[in-house]
Amino acid sequence: MIVDAVATVTEVATPDVPATSHPIALGTVTRPDVVGRTLTPEEALSGAPERDGDFFKVTSILGEEQ
Fold this sequence. Notes:
Blueprint: H1 2-12, H2 41-44, E1 51-52, E2 55-56
Antiparallel strand pairs: 1-2
């Protein structure tokens, strides 16, 4: 099936049409990396249900031993 599909595309493809992976040109959208205001550990953890010092305390999900 895949070989048939490739054969069909090969029959339709013309040498003057360049190969593409997308129908429209794509570009990378970037912006300057600017450092802004960040949260203090106390601000970041202010709504945490549980904490361990400056860290969020969460339930183990991988069966790790404490």
